[in-house]
Structures are given as C-alpha cells and as structure tokens.
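G., the chain you wanted modeled:
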Amino acid sequence: MKMSFKIFSLLFGSLIVFITWSFLPAFDALRRENQMNPTLSAFPIPFAPRQDITFLLGNDKHQENPYFKYAAQYYRQHPEDQTEFVVDTCQSLLAVRNYLERHAPDNGRAWGKINLVFHSNEWTGMGVPTLPGGTRTTINTLAQAIASDQFAPLPQTVVNACTEMIFHGCALGRNEGLLEALRAAFIPPLGTTVLRSSPYFVIFNQDRHHQPTRYLADFWYAFYQTGQKPPQEALVRQLKSRYPTATVDWETALAQQAPTHAGAPFYYTFKIPIVWTVTYPDEASRPKVSTFADQEKWLDDQVALSTLFEEYQIPKAQFSWTFSQLNYTFEDGTSEPAIKAVGFCSVLCVLREVAKQQNETNLL
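Predicted structure as tokens:
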C-alpha cells in the first residue's frame, strides 16, 4: 500500500511538472503583456480571452447585393471568424472610435480583433464618413479630422500590440496612403497594433448549404459613360486592350452576375461620381456652359480636374456630365456665382475568386 502511494505521488508530481512546463509560454506572454499594460497585473483572471468585435458600416441599398446582410451572418455564425459583438449602429469612423473606447472589454484587456466592414473603391475611398454628417472617408478627411483634434488616437488600454484591426473594403489594401491615415487616426503614436486590409474585392455570400462565407476576388475594369452602356463586344475589346496578359474568359464573365462555381469569373457594376464646383467673383466672369462645346472647353480649362482624371486613370470621355449655374454659399455665409459639374462613370468590374494561399492583406 505504501509503495502504491509512492508511485501515485511520483506520477502526480510528474504531471504537475509537465503541466507547469506546458504553460510556461502562456505565463511568459502574460508577463510581457503586463509589462506593456501594468493595469492588467492585478486582474484576477489572468487567462481571460480577449474579446473581438465587428462593425457593419452601411446598409444594403439593393437586394441583388446583400453585402451587409451576409457580413452580419458571417460574423455572427462562422465557426472560426464569429465575434462576440456585431455592431450596426455606428454611422462614421469617429463613432467606431468612440464605441471602442466607451465599451472597452470589462476583463481589463485591450480588444483582440476589430473588424470594420464597409463599401470602398480605389478611387473615392471608403463608403463611410470620417465624422458624422460627412460623405466618404479619404486621406484628406482623415487628415483634417486629426489636425483639428476631432479624431484622437485610441489609448493603449483599448488597442495594443496584441490587437488586430482589419478593414474589410474592396481594394482598400491598394491605397497605402489611406491605410497610413487610418493608422494615424486610430492607433496611438509608436503603437504596434496590427492594421491590415485586402488588396482584392471582399465578397460575403452563402454557400450551397446556406452557410455564410467570405472570399476574396481579383478584379479587372472596363469603363463607360453612365446611361450609355456599350455592346458586350465593345466591353470585351476594352478589357482585352487593358489587360492583354490576363487569363480570363471575358465573354463568359460578362454573361454572369454571380459565379457559377468556385473560381468562375463574373461581373459587377458600380458608379464613380465627380462633383466639381468653381466660383467666380461676379456674373460677368462666369462663362457660359449652355452648349456641348462650351462644356468641353470649361472641363478642359480645369487643371486640377485633369489631374484627378490622371490619378484615377479614367479618361474624361468615360464620364457623363450635367452642368448647372448657381450661387455657391461659403461657410461664412457669403456667396458667389458658380458652375457645378456632376460627372458619373460606370465601372464594369470582372471578378474571380483568388486562391486561398495567395497573400490577402496589406499589413501596416
């Protein structure tokens, strides 16, 4: 009996040593985190998991593109990517910033994964305003908000080196300048929070079993004036000219608005708007834009607008324009005669799912 007890004691002691050895990396990680954030050292539950959160920054305007509906299902139900919280009440990036601080996890640890889901494109930025009442988020809107102290970085008790912010918007990962501006807006100076976004299109959908899915798609563009869609043959010629080395069956892609199977090409259309207003000191200085020739001359005279066309890499001729003469009112209440031009370009975007092993994110 004594021998059995000794054997049991040895086995039990060995088990304790093994368990302690197994958890050494976790204890070491916790020690490092407590050094970064001393307020955690007194927390009574040292292994409380970090909490994850998802923000849905928009609403579905058309039933044929239920982007936010499927994104909500994905982050509420997906076995690996679901988050503890899914928030759809924030209408601006500042509202997201304030929500993260005001609703910081009550376990004393900074947020784990923060997902932001929104519409975007590589020309006009993010389809969510920087501040309440705005339109879209661009480098300029973020820079102005930061410079005016309206958008303060989050404290390290809210986001730290173990936090990951993921911006789920189409092609945002190709806009490094905007990603840098987002880092400056959200992350404290010298903070090492991971911030990333995909250079591809982000697709939320359902599989054949009606389970929520998310995948990334490479993309190719063709352009035309809104309201004047050319024949399919002309669009195919444009795509072949723009992407001579692409291995895409353009005819098949333009016949499908949804993939018939994984990796099958399909197309999606959206519009790029340009609103351009120029003021003049008096009525006599304001040129006429009543004829097509007058309008073309006026557009050609706008040097900054020509620079924008070059930046977008979309020809001016691919926009349809409307012109109006009006009085423009400045913030101080004064007004001047003005010409307002609104242009719309339709973008036909061919999409094809990328291989899972491809690098999907731009890390900053």
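The chain has ten helices and 13 strands.

Shout if anything looks off.
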